[in-house]
Write a structure and sequence with these properties.
- This protein has one domain: Orthogonal Bundle (Cytochrome p450), CATH 1.10.630.10.
- A hairpin with a 2-residue loop joins strand 10 and strand 11.
- Helix content is 48%, strand content 11%.
- The strands form four sheets. It has a seven-stranded mixed sheet, sandwiched between helices. Strands 6-14-13 form a three-stranded antiparallel sheet. Strands 7-8 form a two-stranded antiparallel ribbon.
- It is of the alpha+beta class.
- Helix 5 packs across helix 12 and helix 14 packs parallel to helix 17.
Length: 401
């Protein structure tokens, strides 16, 4: 890493193993020398302080979408590559990529299903699922907990919530991984082709399944979406397909990493008993599953001395913000009862993670239960992180018990 303090630029390769395995020393150095900096690898201005990240997540002058207020020609963008068109056509209906009023309408349709009081009813089913997964491995004395525990819980829960057959979980995971790879730093033509293939196949499956659900509706979220109307308008077929896939992808991808990172953290801190909600929040702050989120300037904006033109992207460093000593005393110390703990691991503002209550519930059940069932749980080897920045999750999590 090289920091040019005079020009506020940082030269840092996000696929450098030294960085993605432990990005926090780099974050501290950047925050001290150039807290608002141009990350040369991405070619965008980034923000590393909690104050800036928190403010910009809520600033309505910035958004996830730009083509609703500017044309590609106005922005100087080339045409979408033909081989990528299916992926970007799909993404154009994604709640994650939309701004009001479309975002408001779609979020309103699904928000009630993810309210804390609604997901709380899933507690017995999540506990039963977690116990069942532990039952499968308890006689082995060792396990790889990402595959055996952290991955099945969120994907099966979101399948059940949506009403998608749980036996499809492995295929859904494969499609999801290929699609989500589009957002990581390590991207090439092979990644793009796999993402397009997964998008086409996943969309085809979902369209067929929605057609079946129209004939045989249930009490699941997908059936509710099919029936839903808001402001006198139903979801379009494309919006319905994209929303269902987004919930499946987002509903497990980050939670898998949060569970894995949380288990690793608690083991390294030798915390095994009385794991409560404050422990979970500190796990989310201490080693967040998502470290960078981007926004477009929706108009010409001046912020922190920067003059940003309409259409420019900015990077919000969630992982760095969560370790900012100006907001979190002793930020590199795991403090299980830290209060307050206003981490930004779920974002903020209108794009605050809609699945946060469900992710929190899954962690509040799965982590204490694992340590209760396996009081001698220990790391079998030092875990390493995946080369998938800006996601931050483990390659594997091998343990003995």
């Amino acid at each position: 890493m090289r920091i040019d303090k005079t020009r506020s630029t940082v030269f840092l390769d996000p696929v450098d193993p030294a960085f993605f395995n432990n990005p926090y020393p780099a974050y501290h150095a950047i925050r001290a020398e150039a807290p608002v900096f141009r990350w040369e690898h991405y070619g965008i201005w980034c923000f590393s302080r909690f104050e800036d990240v928190n403010a910009l997540l809520r600033d309505r002058r910035f958004g996830r979408q730009i083509l609703h207020v500017a044309s590609r020609e106005e922005l100087g963008w080339p045409a979408t590559p033909s081989h990528m068109k299916p992926f970007y056509d799909f993404e154009s209906h994604s709640l994650l990529e939309l701004e009001p009023p479309v975002h408001t309408r779609l979020r309103g349709l699904i928000n009630r299903s993810f309210l804390s009081r609604q997901v709380e009813r899933l507690r017995p089913a999540i506990a039963s699922l977690a116990n069942g997964l532990i039952d499968r491995i308890e006689d082995k004395g060792e396990a790889e907990l990402l595959n055996d525990y952290a991955t099945p819980i969120p994907v099966i829960v979101i399948c059940d919530l949506l009403g998608v057959p749980a036996e499809m979980a492995q295929q859904l995971l494969a499609w999801s991984h290929d699609m989500v790879a589009m957002y990581q730093a390590r991207r090439d033509r092979g990644v793009e082709d796999r993402a397009v293939k997964a998008t086409v196949e996943f969309s085809s499956f979902m369209r067929d399944y929605i057609a079946r659900r129209r004939k045989e509706p249930g009490q699941d979220l997908l059936s509710e979406l099919i029936r839903a109307e808001e402001q006198g308008a139903k979801l379009s077929e494309d919006e319905l397909v994209t929303t269902a896939i987004l919930l499946l992808n987002a509903g497990h991808e980050a939670t898998v990493h949060a569970l894995g990172n949380g288990i690793k953290c608690l083991l390294e801190q030798d915390i095994r008993e009385m794991i409560g909600e404050t422990h979970i929040e500190e796990c989310l702050r201490y080693d967040a599953p998502l470290h960078l989120f981007t926004r477009y300037a929706l108009e010409d904006v001046e912020y922190a001395g920067l003059h940003l033109k309409k259409g420019e992207s900015v990077g919000l460093m969630l992982g760095a913000a969560n370790r900012d000593p100006a907001r979190f005393p002793e930020p590199d110390r795991f403090m299980p009862h830290r209060t307050p703990n206003p981490h930004v691991s779920f974002g903020a503002g209108i794009h605050f993670c809609i699945g946060a209550p469900l992710a929190r519930l899954e962690m509040q059940i799965a982590l204490p239960l694992l340590f209760q069932r396996f009081p001698k749980l220990a790391l079998a080897e030092s875990p390493r992180y995946r080369n998938a920045y800006h996601f931050h999750g483990l390659e594997s999590l091998r343990v003995t018990f």
